[in-house]
Design brief:
heterodimer; A: about 250 residues; alpha/beta; Rossmann fold; 4-stranded antiparallel β-sheet; 11 helices; 10 strands; B: about 270 residues; mainly alpha; two-stranded antiparallel sheet; 12 helices; binds adenosine-5'-diphosphate; binds magnesium ion
Protein backbone atom coordinates (compact mmCIF):
# COMPACT_ATOMS: atom_id res chain seq x y z
CA UNK A 1 0.00 0.00 0.00
CA UNK A 2 1.67 3.15 -1.12
CA UNK A 3 -1.33 5.42 -1.09
CA UNK A 4 -0.90 6.80 2.41
CA UNK A 5 2.50 8.33 1.93
CA UNK A 6 3.29 11.96 2.67
CA UNK A 7 5.63 14.02 0.54
CA UNK A 8 6.68 17.59 1.16
CA UNK A 9 9.02 19.14 -1.34
CA UNK A 10 10.76 22.41 -0.61
CA UNK A 11 7.78 23.88 1.25
CA UNK A 12 7.84 27.56 2.19
CA UNK A 13 5.25 29.30 4.30
CA UNK A 14 4.95 32.88 5.54
CA UNK A 15 2.22 33.88 7.96
CA UNK A 16 0.13 36.83 6.78
CA UNK A 17 2.13 39.15 9.06
CA UNK A 18 5.30 38.17 7.22
CA UNK A 19 6.76 35.73 9.78
CA UNK A 20 8.55 32.99 7.85
CA UNK A 21 7.52 29.72 9.49
CA UNK A 22 8.59 27.10 6.96
CA UNK A 23 11.67 27.76 4.90
CA UNK A 24 12.31 25.05 2.35
CA UNK A 25 11.13 21.97 4.20
CA UNK A 26 11.29 18.58 2.48
CA UNK A 27 10.13 15.32 4.00
CA UNK A 28 8.93 11.89 2.95
CA UNK A 29 6.92 9.67 5.27
CA UNK A 30 5.91 6.16 4.23
CA UNK A 31 2.87 4.08 5.02
CA UNK A 32 2.66 2.76 8.58
CA UNK A 33 5.60 4.76 9.90
CA UNK A 34 5.61 6.39 13.32
CA UNK A 35 7.51 9.65 13.03
CA UNK A 36 8.26 12.22 15.70
CA UNK A 37 8.61 15.88 14.77
CA UNK A 38 10.71 17.61 17.43
CA UNK A 39 12.18 21.05 17.71
CA UNK A 40 12.23 24.11 19.93
CA UNK A 41 9.24 26.40 20.37
CA UNK A 42 8.63 28.30 17.18
CA UNK A 43 10.60 25.87 15.02
CA UNK A 44 7.56 25.30 12.84
CA UNK A 45 6.01 22.06 14.10
CA UNK A 46 2.45 23.33 14.33
CA UNK A 47 2.76 25.07 10.99
CA UNK A 48 3.97 21.85 9.39
CA UNK A 49 1.05 19.85 10.81
CA UNK A 50 -1.40 22.51 9.64
CA UNK A 51 -0.12 21.97 6.11
CA UNK A 52 -0.78 18.23 6.37
CA UNK A 53 -4.39 18.83 7.41
CA UNK A 54 -4.98 21.44 4.74
CA UNK A 55 -5.51 24.23 7.25
CA UNK A 56 -2.70 26.19 5.64
CA UNK A 57 -1.47 26.04 2.06
CA UNK A 58 2.20 26.29 1.12
CA UNK A 59 3.35 29.66 -0.23
CA UNK A 60 5.83 27.75 -2.39
CA UNK A 61 6.69 24.09 -2.82
CA UNK A 62 4.35 21.13 -2.76
CA UNK A 63 2.56 19.00 -0.17
CA UNK A 64 1.35 15.61 -1.40
CA UNK A 65 -0.72 13.15 0.59
CA UNK A 66 -1.43 9.75 -0.89
CA UNK A 67 -0.52 11.14 -4.28
CA UNK A 68 -2.93 14.07 -4.07
CA UNK A 69 -1.61 17.61 -3.74
CA UNK A 70 -3.09 19.38 -0.71
CA UNK A 71 -5.24 22.06 -2.31
CA UNK A 72 -8.72 23.47 -1.79
CA UNK A 73 -10.11 21.05 -4.38
CA UNK A 74 -8.76 17.92 -2.69
CA UNK A 75 -9.61 18.94 0.85
CA UNK A 76 -12.48 16.54 1.44
CA UNK A 77 -10.25 13.65 0.42
CA UNK A 78 -7.30 14.95 2.47
CA UNK A 79 -9.39 15.36 5.59
CA UNK A 80 -10.68 11.84 5.32
CA UNK A 81 -7.11 10.56 5.18
CA UNK A 82 -5.59 12.76 7.88
CA UNK A 83 -6.85 12.95 11.45
CA UNK A 84 -5.39 15.92 13.29
CA UNK A 85 -5.45 16.05 17.08
CA UNK A 86 -5.06 19.69 18.09
CA UNK A 87 -2.62 20.89 20.69
CA UNK A 88 -5.38 22.23 22.90
CA UNK A 89 -8.33 19.86 23.31
CA UNK A 90 -10.53 22.82 24.27
CA UNK A 91 -10.30 23.94 20.67
CA UNK A 92 -11.32 20.56 19.41
CA UNK A 93 -14.34 19.87 21.58
CA UNK A 94 -17.26 22.14 20.82
CA UNK A 95 -20.47 20.16 21.16
CA UNK A 96 -22.58 20.04 24.34
CA UNK A 97 -21.83 16.41 25.13
CA UNK A 98 -18.93 14.06 24.52
CA UNK A 99 -21.18 11.79 22.49
CA UNK A 100 -22.36 14.54 20.17
CA UNK A 101 -18.82 15.76 19.77
CA UNK A 102 -17.53 12.39 18.66
CA UNK A 103 -20.56 11.98 16.39
CA UNK A 104 -19.98 15.33 14.68
CA UNK A 105 -17.42 14.00 12.20
CA UNK A 106 -19.17 10.76 11.22
CA UNK A 107 -22.42 12.68 10.72
CA UNK A 108 -20.60 15.02 8.36
CA UNK A 109 -19.40 11.99 6.41
CA UNK A 110 -23.06 11.34 5.75
CA UNK A 111 -23.13 7.95 7.45
CA UNK A 112 -26.47 6.39 8.40
CA UNK A 113 -27.41 6.80 12.10
CA UNK A 114 -26.69 3.18 12.98
CA UNK A 115 -23.10 3.28 11.79
CA UNK A 116 -22.58 6.70 13.38
CA UNK A 117 -23.63 5.13 16.65
CA UNK A 118 -21.29 2.21 16.06
CA UNK A 119 -18.30 4.41 15.27
CA UNK A 120 -18.86 6.69 18.24
CA UNK A 121 -19.07 3.80 20.65
CA UNK A 122 -16.05 2.11 19.14
CA UNK A 123 -13.94 5.28 19.24
CA UNK A 124 -14.90 6.06 22.84
CA UNK A 125 -14.26 2.45 23.80
CA UNK A 126 -10.79 2.60 22.28
CA UNK A 127 -9.78 5.57 24.41
CA UNK A 128 -11.59 4.09 27.41
CA UNK A 129 -14.03 7.01 27.68
CA UNK A 130 -17.37 5.40 26.95
CA UNK A 131 -18.50 6.19 30.47
CA UNK A 132 -18.10 9.90 29.75
CA UNK A 133 -20.41 9.98 26.78
CA UNK A 134 -23.15 12.11 28.32
CA UNK A 135 -20.82 14.55 30.08
CA UNK A 136 -20.18 18.06 28.76
CA UNK A 137 -16.57 18.25 27.46
CA UNK A 138 -15.75 21.43 29.37
CA UNK A 139 -16.24 19.60 32.65
CA UNK A 140 -13.66 16.89 31.97
CA UNK A 141 -10.12 16.64 33.32
CA UNK A 142 -7.14 17.35 31.07
CA UNK A 143 -6.46 13.67 30.41
CA UNK A 144 -10.11 12.92 29.73
CA UNK A 145 -10.36 15.85 27.33
CA UNK A 146 -7.32 14.60 25.46
CA UNK A 147 -8.77 11.10 25.25
CA UNK A 148 -12.07 12.41 23.91
CA UNK A 149 -10.31 14.68 21.42
CA UNK A 150 -8.49 11.61 20.11
CA UNK A 151 -11.79 9.73 19.94
CA UNK A 152 -13.34 12.49 17.82
CA UNK A 153 -10.53 11.94 15.33
CA UNK A 154 -10.60 8.12 15.51
CA UNK A 155 -14.32 8.14 14.73
CA UNK A 156 -13.43 9.53 11.31
CA UNK A 157 -11.27 6.41 10.74
CA UNK A 158 -8.34 8.31 9.24
CA UNK A 159 -5.40 6.43 7.74
CA UNK A 160 -2.90 8.88 9.19
CA UNK A 161 -2.96 10.22 12.75
CA UNK A 162 -1.32 13.58 13.28
CA UNK A 163 -0.90 14.92 16.81
CA UNK A 164 0.33 18.24 18.08
CA UNK A 165 2.00 17.95 21.49
CA UNK A 166 -0.32 15.22 22.76
CA UNK A 167 1.25 14.97 26.22
CA UNK A 168 1.44 18.70 26.92
CA UNK A 169 -0.40 19.54 30.15
CA UNK A 170 -0.97 15.92 31.13
CA UNK A 171 -0.04 14.52 34.52
CA UNK A 172 2.39 11.56 34.54
CA UNK A 173 -0.35 8.97 34.87
CA UNK A 174 -2.49 10.38 32.07
CA UNK A 175 0.63 10.68 29.95
CA UNK A 176 1.55 7.05 30.49
CA UNK A 177 -2.01 5.98 29.64
CA UNK A 178 -1.88 8.00 26.45
CA UNK A 179 1.45 6.50 25.42
CA UNK A 180 0.10 2.99 25.99
CA UNK A 181 -2.96 3.87 23.95
CA UNK A 182 -0.91 5.24 21.07
CA UNK A 183 1.21 2.08 21.06
CA UNK A 184 -1.87 0.07 20.15
CA UNK A 185 -2.61 2.12 17.01
CA UNK A 186 -1.45 0.74 13.71
CA UNK A 187 -2.04 4.02 11.85
CA UNK A 188 0.70 6.02 10.24
CA UNK A 189 1.55 8.36 13.12
CA UNK A 190 3.09 11.80 13.07
CA UNK A 191 3.64 13.29 16.50
CA UNK A 192 4.95 16.79 17.15
CA UNK A 193 6.27 16.97 20.69
CA UNK A 194 8.83 18.17 23.21
CA UNK A 195 8.45 14.95 25.13
CA UNK A 196 11.51 13.04 23.96
CA UNK A 197 10.86 10.14 26.30
CA UNK A 198 7.56 9.63 24.54
CA UNK A 199 9.40 9.69 21.24
CA UNK A 200 11.77 6.96 22.43
CA UNK A 201 8.76 4.86 23.38
CA UNK A 202 6.71 5.37 20.25
CA UNK A 203 8.67 6.47 17.24
CA UNK A 204 11.37 4.64 15.34
CA UNK A 205 12.11 7.73 13.33
CA UNK A 206 12.60 11.35 14.31
CA UNK A 207 12.68 14.56 12.31
CA UNK A 208 14.31 17.54 14.01
CA UNK A 209 13.12 20.95 12.86
CA UNK A 210 14.96 24.20 13.23
CA UNK A 211 13.85 27.56 11.87
CA UNK A 212 11.28 26.04 9.59
CA UNK A 213 13.38 23.38 7.96
CA UNK A 214 14.68 19.87 8.61
CA UNK A 215 17.85 19.92 10.67
CA UNK A 216 18.15 16.16 10.98
CA UNK A 217 16.13 13.12 10.02
CA UNK A 218 16.94 9.59 11.07
CA UNK A 219 16.58 6.78 13.60
CA UNK A 220 15.46 8.14 16.94
CA UNK A 221 18.18 6.44 18.99
CA UNK A 222 20.94 7.68 16.72
CA UNK A 223 19.75 11.27 16.78
CA UNK A 224 19.19 11.35 20.52
CA UNK A 225 22.74 10.11 21.17
CA UNK A 226 24.11 13.09 19.28
CA UNK A 227 24.32 15.70 22.02
CA UNK A 228 25.76 18.54 19.89
CA UNK A 229 22.92 18.06 17.41
CA UNK A 230 20.32 18.19 20.18
CA UNK A 231 21.94 21.31 21.60
CA UNK A 232 21.82 22.97 18.21
CA UNK A 233 18.11 22.23 18.02
CA UNK A 234 17.69 23.58 21.57
CA UNK A 235 16.66 20.15 22.85
CA UNK A 236 17.83 18.02 25.75
CA UNK A 237 18.60 14.33 25.81
CA UNK A 238 15.68 12.36 27.25
CA UNK A 239 16.08 11.37 30.90
CA UNK A 240 16.03 7.69 30.15
CA UNK A 241 19.14 8.04 27.97
CA UNK A 242 21.12 10.25 30.32
CA UNK A 243 23.66 8.32 32.33
CA UNK A 244 22.29 8.25 35.85
CA UNK A 245 24.82 9.95 38.14
CA UNK A 246 23.69 7.97 41.16
CA UNK A 247 23.86 4.55 39.56
CA UNK A 248 27.06 5.17 37.63
CA UNK A 249 28.91 6.03 40.83
CA UNK A 250 28.05 2.69 42.31
CA UNK B 1 -16.70 42.47 36.93
CA UNK B 2 -16.22 38.75 37.00
CA UNK B 3 -19.27 38.11 39.11
CA UNK B 4 -21.54 40.24 37.00
CA UNK B 5 -20.46 38.59 33.80
CA UNK B 6 -20.65 35.08 35.09
CA UNK B 7 -24.03 35.68 36.69
CA UNK B 8 -25.39 37.37 33.63
CA UNK B 9 -24.28 34.82 31.12
CA UNK B 10 -24.34 31.72 33.19
CA UNK B 11 -24.71 29.59 30.13
CA UNK B 12 -23.13 26.60 31.75
CA UNK B 13 -25.81 26.63 34.38
CA UNK B 14 -28.63 26.73 31.83
CA UNK B 15 -26.79 24.09 29.85
CA UNK B 16 -26.66 21.85 32.90
CA UNK B 17 -30.35 22.34 33.53
CA UNK B 18 -31.08 21.42 29.92
CA UNK B 19 -29.20 18.17 30.45
CA UNK B 20 -31.69 16.75 32.94
CA UNK B 21 -34.09 14.06 31.91
CA UNK B 22 -37.47 15.04 33.32
CA UNK B 23 -40.70 14.37 31.48
CA UNK B 24 -40.66 17.88 30.08
CA UNK B 25 -37.03 17.69 28.99
CA UNK B 26 -37.76 14.58 26.98
CA UNK B 27 -40.57 16.11 24.97
CA UNK B 28 -39.79 16.75 21.32
CA UNK B 29 -37.83 20.01 20.87
CA UNK B 30 -39.99 21.08 17.92
CA UNK B 31 -43.09 20.66 20.05
CA UNK B 32 -41.61 22.72 22.88
CA UNK B 33 -40.49 25.37 20.43
CA UNK B 34 -43.97 25.69 18.97
CA UNK B 35 -45.52 25.81 22.44
CA UNK B 36 -43.13 28.60 23.42
CA UNK B 37 -43.90 30.57 20.27
CA UNK B 38 -47.64 30.07 20.71
CA UNK B 39 -47.32 31.24 24.30
CA UNK B 40 -45.42 34.37 23.29
CA UNK B 41 -47.92 35.20 20.56
CA UNK B 42 -50.83 34.66 22.93
CA UNK B 43 -49.33 36.92 25.60
CA UNK B 44 -48.44 39.60 23.07
CA UNK B 45 -51.87 39.60 21.43
CA UNK B 46 -53.76 40.79 24.52
CA UNK B 47 -55.18 44.27 24.56
CA UNK B 48 -52.68 46.85 25.75
CA UNK B 49 -54.70 47.61 28.89
CA UNK B 50 -55.38 43.96 29.75
CA UNK B 51 -54.13 42.74 33.11
CA UNK B 52 -56.51 40.26 34.70
CA UNK B 53 -56.70 38.21 31.50
CA UNK B 54 -52.93 37.73 31.49
CA UNK B 55 -52.78 36.23 34.95
CA UNK B 56 -53.92 32.69 34.05
CA UNK B 57 -51.03 32.51 31.60
CA UNK B 58 -48.65 32.31 34.58
CA UNK B 59 -49.90 28.79 35.00
CA UNK B 60 -47.69 27.76 32.05
CA UNK B 61 -44.26 28.74 33.48
CA UNK B 62 -45.23 27.39 36.86
CA UNK B 63 -46.27 24.09 35.35
CA UNK B 64 -43.08 23.82 33.30
CA UNK B 65 -40.93 24.52 36.34
CA UNK B 66 -42.75 21.79 38.20
CA UNK B 67 -42.73 19.27 35.34
CA UNK B 68 -39.13 20.06 34.44
CA UNK B 69 -38.03 19.99 38.08
CA UNK B 70 -36.33 23.35 37.62
CA UNK B 71 -35.14 25.35 40.62
CA UNK B 72 -37.48 28.33 40.45
CA UNK B 73 -35.28 30.52 42.64
CA UNK B 74 -32.30 30.37 40.26
CA UNK B 75 -34.53 31.08 37.29
CA UNK B 76 -36.18 33.99 39.09
CA UNK B 77 -32.73 35.43 39.73
CA UNK B 78 -32.07 35.34 35.99
CA UNK B 79 -35.38 37.06 35.45
CA UNK B 80 -34.56 39.77 37.98
CA UNK B 81 -31.35 40.46 36.09
CA UNK B 82 -33.26 41.34 32.95
CA UNK B 83 -36.07 43.11 34.79
CA UNK B 84 -34.58 46.61 34.47
CA UNK B 85 -34.70 46.21 30.70
CA UNK B 86 -38.26 44.98 30.90
CA UNK B 87 -39.32 47.89 33.12
CA UNK B 88 -37.53 50.41 30.96
CA UNK B 89 -39.51 49.45 27.87
CA UNK B 90 -42.82 50.69 29.28
CA UNK B 91 -41.43 53.37 31.54
CA UNK B 92 -42.86 56.34 29.67
CA UNK B 93 -46.35 54.96 29.20
CA UNK B 94 -47.71 56.54 32.42
CA UNK B 95 -46.45 59.95 31.28
CA UNK B 96 -47.69 59.71 27.73
CA UNK B 97 -51.08 58.07 28.16
CA UNK B 98 -53.32 59.85 30.67
CA UNK B 99 -56.72 58.62 29.53
CA UNK B 100 -58.65 57.70 32.69
CA UNK B 101 -59.69 54.07 33.13
CA UNK B 102 -62.14 52.47 35.47
CA UNK B 103 -60.75 49.63 37.55
CA UNK B 104 -63.50 47.20 38.51
CA UNK B 105 -65.76 50.18 39.12
CA UNK B 106 -63.76 50.97 42.26
CA UNK B 107 -61.40 53.76 41.19
CA UNK B 108 -59.97 55.39 38.08
CA UNK B 109 -56.37 55.30 36.99
CA UNK B 110 -54.40 56.75 34.07
CA UNK B 111 -54.35 54.35 31.10
CA UNK B 112 -50.59 54.66 30.97
CA UNK B 113 -50.21 52.86 34.27
CA UNK B 114 -52.41 50.04 33.08
CA UNK B 115 -50.53 49.65 29.82
CA UNK B 116 -47.22 49.84 31.69
CA UNK B 117 -48.27 47.04 34.00
CA UNK B 118 -49.71 45.04 31.14
CA UNK B 119 -46.55 45.40 29.03
CA UNK B 120 -44.37 44.42 31.96
CA UNK B 121 -46.47 41.33 32.54
CA UNK B 122 -46.30 40.38 28.88
CA UNK B 123 -42.53 40.79 28.71
CA UNK B 124 -42.07 38.86 31.93
CA UNK B 125 -44.19 36.04 30.58
CA UNK B 126 -42.37 35.82 27.27
CA UNK B 127 -38.86 36.07 28.73
CA UNK B 128 -39.72 33.40 31.26
CA UNK B 129 -41.01 31.15 28.51
CA UNK B 130 -37.83 31.65 26.47
CA UNK B 131 -35.68 30.98 29.54
CA UNK B 132 -37.65 27.83 30.25
CA UNK B 133 -37.20 26.60 26.70
CA UNK B 134 -33.44 27.00 26.99
CA UNK B 135 -33.41 25.39 30.42
CA UNK B 136 -35.25 22.32 29.18
CA UNK B 137 -33.83 21.86 25.68
CA UNK B 138 -30.21 21.69 24.54
CA UNK B 139 -29.40 24.31 21.98
CA UNK B 140 -28.38 21.94 19.18
CA UNK B 141 -31.76 20.27 19.60
CA UNK B 142 -33.48 23.66 19.32
CA UNK B 143 -31.39 24.24 16.20
CA UNK B 144 -32.48 20.92 14.73
CA UNK B 145 -36.10 21.78 15.54
CA UNK B 146 -35.77 25.17 13.85
CA UNK B 147 -34.42 23.42 10.75
CA UNK B 148 -37.33 20.97 10.86
CA UNK B 149 -39.72 23.89 11.02
CA UNK B 150 -38.18 25.25 7.85
CA UNK B 151 -35.85 28.00 9.04
CA UNK B 152 -33.00 28.61 6.58
CA UNK B 153 -29.86 26.62 7.20
CA UNK B 154 -27.58 29.66 7.33
CA UNK B 155 -29.62 31.21 10.12
CA UNK B 156 -29.61 28.09 12.27
CA UNK B 157 -25.89 27.52 11.79
CA UNK B 158 -25.32 31.15 12.78
CA UNK B 159 -27.34 30.67 15.91
CA UNK B 160 -25.46 27.54 16.94
CA UNK B 161 -22.06 29.09 16.23
CA UNK B 162 -23.04 32.22 18.13
CA UNK B 163 -24.00 30.06 21.08
CA UNK B 164 -20.65 28.31 20.93
CA UNK B 165 -18.89 31.68 20.60
CA UNK B 166 -20.61 32.91 23.74
CA UNK B 167 -19.09 30.01 25.64
CA UNK B 168 -15.67 30.85 24.27
CA UNK B 169 -16.16 34.50 25.15
CA UNK B 170 -17.20 33.56 28.63
CA UNK B 171 -14.15 31.36 29.20
CA UNK B 172 -11.81 34.07 27.97
CA UNK B 173 -13.53 36.73 30.07
CA UNK B 174 -13.11 34.47 33.07
CA UNK B 175 -9.43 33.99 32.35
CA UNK B 176 -8.71 37.67 31.76
CA UNK B 177 -10.70 38.77 34.77
CA UNK B 178 -8.79 36.34 36.93
CA UNK B 179 -5.45 37.57 35.64
CA UNK B 180 -6.53 41.15 36.36
CA UNK B 181 -7.76 40.33 39.82
CA UNK B 182 -4.44 38.73 40.66
CA UNK B 183 -2.47 41.70 39.45
CA UNK B 184 -4.50 44.68 40.62
CA UNK B 185 -4.09 46.12 44.11
CA UNK B 186 -6.36 44.44 46.63
CA UNK B 187 -9.68 46.22 47.04
CA UNK B 188 -9.09 48.40 44.04
CA UNK B 189 -10.60 47.75 40.68
CA UNK B 190 -8.82 47.88 37.43
CA UNK B 191 -7.66 51.38 36.40
CA UNK B 192 -9.97 52.75 33.73
CA UNK B 193 -7.06 53.23 31.36
CA UNK B 194 -6.61 49.48 31.17
CA UNK B 195 -10.16 48.71 30.11
CA UNK B 196 -9.61 49.58 26.47
CA UNK B 197 -6.63 47.34 25.94
CA UNK B 198 -8.38 44.64 27.92
CA UNK B 199 -11.35 44.67 25.59
CA UNK B 200 -9.00 44.58 22.62
CA UNK B 201 -7.25 41.56 24.12
CA UNK B 202 -10.55 39.86 24.68
CA UNK B 203 -11.64 40.39 21.10
CA UNK B 204 -8.36 39.15 19.65
CA UNK B 205 -8.24 36.12 21.90
CA UNK B 206 -11.80 35.07 21.28
CA UNK B 207 -11.45 35.58 17.56
CA UNK B 208 -8.35 33.44 17.35
CA UNK B 209 -9.90 30.76 19.53
CA UNK B 210 -13.07 30.82 17.48
CA UNK B 211 -10.91 30.44 14.41
CA UNK B 212 -9.17 27.38 15.81
CA UNK B 213 -12.48 25.85 16.74
CA UNK B 214 -13.75 26.52 13.24
CA UNK B 215 -10.64 24.80 11.88
CA UNK B 216 -11.30 21.81 14.11
CA UNK B 217 -14.82 21.68 12.72
CA UNK B 218 -13.54 21.84 9.15
CA UNK B 219 -11.07 19.05 9.87
CA UNK B 220 -14.01 16.87 10.76
CA UNK B 221 -15.85 17.53 7.56
CA UNK B 222 -17.87 20.64 8.48
CA UNK B 223 -19.15 22.17 5.25
CA UNK B 224 -21.66 24.74 6.43
CA UNK B 225 -24.36 22.26 7.36
CA UNK B 226 -24.52 21.22 10.98
CA UNK B 227 -25.75 17.67 10.90
CA UNK B 228 -27.26 16.96 14.22
CA UNK B 229 -28.13 13.64 15.62
CA UNK B 230 -31.42 12.64 14.15
CA UNK B 231 -34.36 14.05 16.03
CA UNK B 232 -36.82 11.29 16.73
CA UNK B 233 -40.18 11.79 15.09
CA UNK B 234 -42.91 13.55 17.08
CA UNK B 235 -44.80 10.98 19.13
CA UNK B 236 -48.33 10.90 20.44
CA UNK B 237 -47.41 12.43 23.78
CA UNK B 238 -45.63 15.31 22.02
CA UNK B 239 -48.77 16.04 20.01
CA UNK B 240 -51.00 15.75 23.06
CA UNK B 241 -48.81 18.11 24.95
CA UNK B 242 -48.76 20.59 22.10
CA UNK B 243 -52.55 20.42 21.66
CA UNK B 244 -53.25 20.73 25.37
CA UNK B 245 -51.07 23.80 25.82
CA UNK B 246 -52.29 25.54 22.69
CA UNK B 247 -55.84 24.83 23.78
CA UNK B 248 -55.09 26.34 27.17
CA UNK B 249 -53.54 29.43 25.59
CA UNK B 250 -56.59 29.91 23.34
CA UNK B 251 -58.83 29.53 26.35
CA UNK B 252 -56.84 32.20 28.20
CA UNK B 253 -56.96 34.44 25.18
CA UNK B 254 -60.64 34.28 24.31
CA UNK B 255 -62.26 33.59 27.65
CA UNK B 256 -61.50 36.00 30.44
CA UNK B 257 -60.89 33.31 33.02
CA UNK B 258 -60.72 35.46 36.18
CA UNK B 259 -63.93 37.13 35.04
CA UNK B 260 -65.61 33.85 34.23
CA UNK B 261 -64.49 32.40 37.51
CA UNK B 262 -65.95 35.38 39.36
CA UNK B 263 -69.24 34.94 37.57
CA UNK B 264 -69.24 31.25 38.30
CA UNK B 265 -68.74 31.93 42.00
CA UNK B 266 -71.54 34.50 42.02
CA UNK B 267 -73.95 32.07 40.33
CA UNK B 268 -73.13 29.29 42.74
CA UNK B 269 -73.46 31.43 45.83
N1 LIG C 1 -0.78 32.94 13.48
C1 LIG C 1 0.52 33.30 13.36
N2 LIG C 1 0.84 34.51 12.85
C2 LIG C 1 2.12 34.87 12.71
N3 LIG C 1 3.17 34.12 13.05
C3 LIG C 1 2.93 32.90 13.56
C4 LIG C 1 1.59 32.43 13.74
N4 LIG C 1 1.63 31.19 14.27
C5 LIG C 1 2.96 30.91 14.41
N5 LIG C 1 3.73 31.92 13.98
C6 LIG C 1 5.21 31.95 13.93
O1 LIG C 1 5.65 30.93 13.08
C7 LIG C 1 6.78 30.29 13.63
C8 LIG C 1 6.52 28.80 13.76
O2 LIG C 1 5.51 28.61 14.73
P1 LIG C 1 4.88 27.22 15.11
O3 LIG C 1 4.67 26.42 13.87
O4 LIG C 1 3.69 27.48 15.94
O5 LIG C 1 6.04 26.56 15.98
P2 LIG C 1 6.00 25.35 17.02
O6 LIG C 1 4.68 24.67 16.88
O7 LIG C 1 7.16 24.50 16.61
O8 LIG C 1 6.22 25.92 18.37
C9 LIG C 1 7.11 30.99 14.91
O9 LIG C 1 8.11 31.92 14.66
C10 LIG C 1 5.82 31.68 15.28
O10 LIG C 1 6.08 32.86 15.99
MG1 LIG D 1 3.15 24.32 18.32
Amino acid sequence: MSHHTIDLTNVHYHYPDGTPALTGLSLHIGHGEAVAIVGANGSGKTTLLSHLAGLLFASAGEVNIGGYPVAPKTLSHIRRTIGLVFQNPDDQLFMPTVYEDVAFGPLNLGLPPASVEERVSAALQTVDALALKDRPPYRLSGGQKRAVAIATVLAMEPAILVMDEPTAALDPFARRQLINLLKTFSHTKIIATHDLDLVLDLCERTVILKDGRVLADGRTRDLFRNKPLLAEARLEQPFSMQACPVCSQA
Amino acid sequence: MRNIVTAWLDLHYLDDLARQASFFHRLHPAGKLVITLAFAVTAASFDKYEIAGLLPLFFYPLAVMALGRLPSSRLLQRLLLVSPVVLLVGLFNPLLDRTPHDVAGLFTIAGGWLSFLSLTLKLTLTTTAALLLIATTKLPAIGAALRQLGLPRALVVQLLLLHRYLFVLLEEVGRIAQACELRSAPGKGLPYGAWGSLLGQLLLRTVSRAERIYQAMRCRGFDGEIRLLMLRPMQARDYWHLLAWCGFFLLCRFVNLPHAFGHFLLEVL
